[in-house]
Amino acid sequence: MQKNMLVTPIVKWVGGKRQLLSEIMPLIPSNFTTYVEPFLGGGAVLFKLQPDSAIISDSNEELINVYKAVKDDPEGLILLLEEHEKNNSEPYFYNIRGLDRNSDYSSFSSIQRAARIIYLNKTCYNGLYRVNSAGQFNSPYGRYKNPNIVNALGIRAMSKYFNSNSVAIRACDYKESLRNLDEDAFVYLDPPYMPISSSASFTGYTEGGFGYDRQVELKNECDKLRNSGIRFLLSNSDCEVIRNLYKDYTISTVHAKRSVNSNASKRGEVNEVLISYGI
Question: What pTM was estimated for this model as a whole?
């Protein structure tokens, strides 16, 4: 199927891979049956690849709801985003941000929730999706002059891609998407990175953290993939802990410029690693 250049990420997400596509894409084999991405985030790799068959998931239910809304009702989503764009201001932003503090938020439709998340993502400070311990969005207003809130062309193109192909969209723990895969599947793993210093940790886009124990758990899942003969590629921070965990795998270093971080001093070029098996 011919790739649609309009199918690109519609949200900005911590650790997004758009700038590393030139290094990641050549490592992805062409002869897989199903593409599997269990830490979807902004989906830069998925939308560049546009596979015919895919299983995509993320533990962030609000994010996955955005993709389901794009698939199921792109025009309804666009209409709501146009309303947000028309009303955008600092007081309006904080009013919309505060909706998840209200008891009736659970009664909002999936389209209303999706439009809210996209609007907040496009207008919050530095595009930093962040929630507090109660799971409530808490990034401040970004004061952008002309944020691209609606992006109707991108939403329609993404919806067409989802509906023209076999794409399963799931809100779940990553391990669930790794179960019962065909041997010829290909898995791309882009988990929350191992912090490279005590002050560099950022796990605020989900309510739970992803510390050392979960990194070890993920490595064990990669071992299961290898034992099943399933090829995979994994991104992570370039640090001794990760290199030691994956010392039996192929590791290459890439350079990324990170613009999304709660601490301005942590933005800029950093080393990351690509870890692979079978490719």
Answer: 0.91
